[in-house]
Amino acid sequence: MLLLWSQDKIPQLLNWKAMIPPKTIVLVNTWAIQRDPKLWDKAEEFIPDRFLNSQVDFRGQHIQYTPFGAGRRRCPGIKFAVAGAEYVLANLLYWFDWKLPDLRRCEDLDMSDYYAIIIRKKVPLHLVPMLHSFS
Fold first, then answer.
1. What are phi and psi of 21, to 5 degrees?
2. Count of CB atoms within 10 A of residue 66's CB?
3. I want to staple 104 with a disulfide (CB 3.0 to 4.6 A). Which of 66, 90, 100, 121 is the partner?
4. Could you tell me which of 42, 67, 46, 64 has the C-alpha nearest to residue 55?
5. What number of other Cβ atoms are within 10 A of residue 70's Cβ?
6. Is 78 helix (H, G, I), strand (E, B) or coil?
7. pLDDT mean over 62-77
């Protein structure tokens, strides 16, 4: 991701002492920022509730939270992506009933995570969709 502020403000925003030469492209490691223990309690844990009452506005210039970029170069499709994801999820929930395969119980599911470039479940969740009967 490119840092989106004018070059004369970058050192002040990031509290840098060195000057950046003109026309330098500055890349920001958002993965590291979003896992910085100075910015987040339990930064390495997946806690989506931390954003419920957060003062961090992802539309502003808070660099703590930048999943879609920031400023003028923020992802122009953010609203479309969110609406599309909600539409797909709503249709899946509306048209199908879901069950675990092979009579497995919810209590037996392994919900632990595997950390790599992306976070995924150590054991993939397998569900069986059944067309919902509206009668």
1. -60, 150
2. 19
3. 100
4. 64
5. 23
6. helix
7. 70
Enumerate the known binding-site residues for heme.
Answer: 75
| Distance from C-alpha of 95 to C-alpha of 117, rounded to nearest angstrom | 33
| CA–CA distance, 66 with 30 (Å, rounded to integer) | 7
Q: Check if the beta carbon of residue 73 is closer than 8 Å to that of residue 4.
A: yes
DSSP letter (8 states) at residue 101: G
d(CA 52, CA 30): 20
**Measuring CA to CA, which residue among 122, 100, 127 is closest to residue 111?**
122
Domain boundaries, the chain: 1-75, 78-131
Taking a C-beta distance cutoff of 8 angstroms, is the pair 76, 105 a contact?
no
pTM of this structure: 0.47
Q: Which residue has the higher pLDDT, 84 or 120?
A: 84
Triad 22, 12, 66: Cα angle to 5°: 90
Higher pLDDT: 130 or 3? It is 130
The alpha carbon of 109 is separated from its chain's Cα centroid by a whole number of angstroms, namely 24
For residue 130 the two structure tokens come to: 């059944």
